[in-house]
Amino acid sequence: MAKEWKNRTAVNGKITVIDYKFDRNGGKMKIDRRLNHAYKNADTVYFDDNSKYIFFSDIHRGDDSISDEFTRNQNLFLHALNYYYKEGYEYIEVGDGDELWEYKNFSVIRLAHSDVFTVIKKFYDEGRFIMLYGNHNIYLKSKRFIKENYYQYYDEYNQIRVDLYRGLKPKEAIILKHKETKQKIFVLHGHQGDIINDQLWFFSMLLLRYFWRYLHIVGFGNPTSPARNLYKRHKVEKVYDRWIEKNKMMLICGHTHRPKFPKANDLPYFNTGCCIRTRGLNGIEIVNGKIQMVDWRIAANEDGDLRVHRTVVRGPVPLENYDFKKNPYSTHYNN
């Protein structure tokens, strides 16, 4: 039986209560239990072959300082968002959108990247935005924190409070379900069950905010993060593969910062990658009943002019190819 603990954390000078669980037997919950819990509590979002989705994860919007890794891709990300808005996509942010571990004041993040939040608001106002939380913005589990920070903001130029995402309800996970085929796609950030970034997230946050943040400015990576640790990254992916095979369901996540698109006959594990790579950003699109991975980057043409390029690097592949009812897959894992 799992024992619930409540962690009271000071955010923006106020106390935010975050619930998380430890297992009595061994001190942690097994990963499959965390995934099952997220799945059981996930909202179902229905779609069809006319639906269009863009999935971005691990944007890590910061304060525009030297430690803000998103800054270098802010304009590229903004261009991509405008493209998807004009093309009629729905935007699903798959966790770690805002870097609330390193920067405790969301108002600083919003001010630093106000243009980005303005475009996201256009999606939100039209019912085309779903926000999932990850470990780096786990504060979004708190309704009080959301209401105080995301519903409105103070416009310093006009000296009035302005609506941002009033009524926003971030989720841990969602299930996309096709209206006709009933095929399901489980979408979540991917930190669930990673003990350092899940059950012990508060201690990891303190280490990052007051220690690793300053070391990574000069080139040192945080070894507790799967994005910086190859062994942890492969371990997380392997465990998620087991869950997919056991539950016979396609899965889209982020967290590891490593883009993944399954090869033929591989289990349907998809990873969005991240938006803080030095050479650009990755995302996953679902359009016309097909899924594909895209790469956005700025590159020079033959004349030396810099241009934004969107490239489909994997796919498109029909979603039905990843439907276990039609493709049962072989058993890869027996442990």
From TrEMBL:
UniProt-listed GO biological process terms: lipid A biosynthetic process
SUPFAM superfamilies: Metallo-dependent phosphatases (SSF56300)
The keyword tRNA processing appears for this protein: no
Record key words, sorted: Cell inner membrane, Cell membrane, Manganese, Membrane, Metal-binding
InterPro entries according to UniProt: Calcineurin-like_PHP (IPR004843), LpxH-like (IPR043461), Metallo-depent_PP-like (IPR029052)
Organism: Lacrimispora sp. BS-2
Gene Ontology CC: membrane
GO MF entries: metal ion binding; UDP-2,3-diacylglucosamine hydrolase activity
Keyword presence, NADP: no
UniProt xrefs under Pfam families: Metallophos (PF00149)
The protein, known as: Metallophosphoesterase
Domain called Calcineurin-like phosphoesterase: residue spans: 53-259
